[in-house]
Amino acid sequence: MSAFDGLFSLVESTLDQPTAQWLREHVDVPEALQSFNWSEQALHRVWLAQALNLCLFHTLVNAVPDGRRYVEEQAQQGRKVVFDHGAIRTVDWPSNGELPRGRQAFSRLLEPLGFTDVRTYPLTKLNMTGWGYRQMDLPEDIAQFFVSELHPGRFSEPFQQAVSRVLGSSVDPLQAQHLSLLNRLSLTRHCSLSEARTLLPALHRAFGRQHGVVREADYLCLLNESAEMAWIATEGNSFNHLTDRVQDLDACVAQQRQLQRPMKDSIEVSASGRVMQTAYRACTVTRELIDAQGHCREHQVPGSFVEFIQRKVDPDNGRIDLNFDSSNAQGIFKMTDSKI
What is the DSSP pairing of strand 115-123 with strand 144-150? Predict the structure, then answer.
């Protein structure tokens, strides 16, 4: 079995065979992975990181019909999508729930996989902070994570109380055995294939909503002050978006507009001029909220979306610019801002 066969077999063990095959046909897997050890006894962490990213990629495109259509159209044109980064939102707030506070819920699993928070991004307009987590073994090849924290302490007291109620029912998707495996992985950078198959489904589950159904009154309270927190209330720590790294963003946008896809009005350009981003508008999803009478009622709320990014070479080091940009991020975050 080749290393790539092993990778997709690992993905298949968490998802299923047709899904693993679909990912193999539609998502670019960097050849550089093969410079790292693959064996059933000592699997290097890059393979687990890539497997997780592939699982998360599929979860998002499965939830965003426009995203799946885009990915399949790219394949029809003979191109596999280059997964640049995914984004998740967390809440910097204590609660009675089981989930660790804010980004700690994810640093504990990303760091053993080789990801390091290389830069902090103030998202002042949103009362949030973002961190770019980069995989240090293959920084240009393995998709990054943009992890953000919302700071309820900057909002009103009723808002804070609603946040506490929302997060209070959270459960921890990682059990003691998973944390033990992560701890050893952080020390050795390797695990067995059997351990990887135990760990991967739990890591995959971590990127979801860990709290229960939210009360409509709490949702509206949150929405009144922060569209981002309202999104977290219904979607939790799911991928907010995933991003395709393209060679020519202007050409990509022109094609998507010609196809009448739900594109953002403008392209965000970083202060350096080297990172350009735009996106589809968020899809609409159906979520239950609990009304004043205690009944669950369905509502249409913003879901996730697909983003497009072009990264130019940094002349100072001759490598592509892997950084993010606070202004760009805040512009992209608006894709999930809508009223109930």
Answer: unpaired
| Beta strands 268-269 and 115-123, pairing class | unpaired
In angstroms, the Cα distances linking 252 to 74, 96, 144, 257, 282 are 11, 45, 21, 9, 18
Of residues 330, 335, 337, 336, the one with CA closest to residue 125 = 330
138 CB-near residues (< 8 Å, 6+ apart): 30, 32, 33, 46
Q: Do the beta carbons of residue 159 and residue 100 sit within 8 Å?
A: no
Phi–psi pair at 79, nearest 5 degrees:
-125, 135
Question: Tokens 């002050």 map to which residue?
Answer: 225
Question: Is-above-0.85 flag for pTM?
Answer: yes
Return the closest-CA partner of residue 307 out of 84, 92, 120, 119. Answer: 84
Task: For the chain, list the domains and their CATH numbers.
Answer: 3-336 (3.10.180.50)
Per-residue model confidence as pLDDT tens digits over 56-82: 999 999 999 999 999 999 999 999 999
CA-based nearest residue to 242, from 79, 61, 46: 61
Integer Cα distance of 179 and 176 in angstroms: 5
Each residue's pLDDT tens digit, 116-161: 999 999 999 999 999 999 999 999 999 999 999 999 999 999 999 9
Q: Count CA atoms within 13 Å of residue 319 on its CB side.
A: 7
- Alpha carbon distance 70, 19 (integer Å): 17
